[in-house]
Amino acid sequence: MNVFARSVRALRPALARGYASEAPAAADNLRLTFVLPHKALYKATDVQQVNLAATSGDMGILANHVPTIEQLNPGVVEVVESGDVTKKFFVSGGFAIINPDSTLNINAVEAAAIDEISPENVQAALADAQRVANGSGSDAEKAAAKIEIEVYEAIQTALSK
């Protein structure tokens, strides 16, 4: 038996998974930590809800959500701070980790507030990326341009909502 198999067998009680009915006492708020490599947008801040675009589909996360790890698609992360205060961010990708204690950690590569994004600049950058993707550049340049196109199209969709 290899070392990993022995380690897992020894930890089995600690690795046991539970059901939602076995969750700890209900929390009123979701505690959000939303970070980028260079700064924290939210640091253990109580919020009502977070809506995000995950690879498994769009999700709304409230306190006491079932624990999971989700990969983020390029799209909008909407933070409902209170009944009338909502902030929207465009993220290019990352991960959301929903913990059993009603904490949510979002680690994003890049994020920008939706209201700070210029639709004209997005359109111009999209046109440039399309020109490179359809041009005579190297395979690496074309591949990078295709990724840029996907992100700029996602930003356009986010801005139109």
TrEMBL record:
<comment type="similarity">
    <text>Belongs to the ATPase epsilon chain family.</text>
</comment>
<keyword id="KW-0813">Transport</keyword>
<keyword id="KW-0999">Mitochondrion inner membrane</keyword>
<keyword id="KW-0496">Mitochondrion</keyword>
<dbReference type="InterPro" id="IPR001469">
    <property type="entry name" value="ATP_synth_F1_dsu/esu"/>
</dbReference>
<keyword id="KW-0406">Ion transport</keyword>
<dbReference type="GO" id="GO:0046933">
    <property type="term" value="F:proton-transporting ATP synthase activity, rotational mechanism"/>
</dbReference>
<keyword id="KW-0472">Membrane</keyword>
<dbReference type="Pfam" id="PF02823">
    <property type="entry name" value="ATP-synt_DE_N"/>
</dbReference>
<dbReference type="GO" id="GO:0016887">
    <property type="term" value="F:ATP hydrolysis activity"/>
</dbReference>
<dbReference type="InterPro" id="IPR020546">
    <property type="entry name" value="ATP_synth_F1_dsu/esu_N"/>
</dbReference>
<dbReference type="GO" id="GO:0045259">
    <property type="term" value="C:proton-transporting ATP synthase complex"/>
</dbReference>
<keyword id="KW-0066">ATP synthesis</keyword>
<dbReference type="InterPro" id="IPR036771">
    <property type="entry name" value="ATPsynth_dsu/esu_N"/>
</dbReference>
<keyword id="KW-0809">Transit peptide</keyword>
<dbReference type="GO" id="GO:0005743">
    <property type="term" value="C:mitochondrial inner membrane"/>
</dbReference>
<protein>
    <recommendedName>
        <fullName>ATP synthase subunit delta, mitochondrial</fullName>
    </recommendedName>
</protein>
<keyword id="KW-0375">Hydrogen ion transport</keyword>
<keyword id="KW-0139">CF(1)</keyword>
<feature type="domain" description="ATP synthase F1 complex delta/epsilon subunit N-terminal">
    <location>
        <begin position="30"/>
        <end position="102"/>
    </location>
</feature>
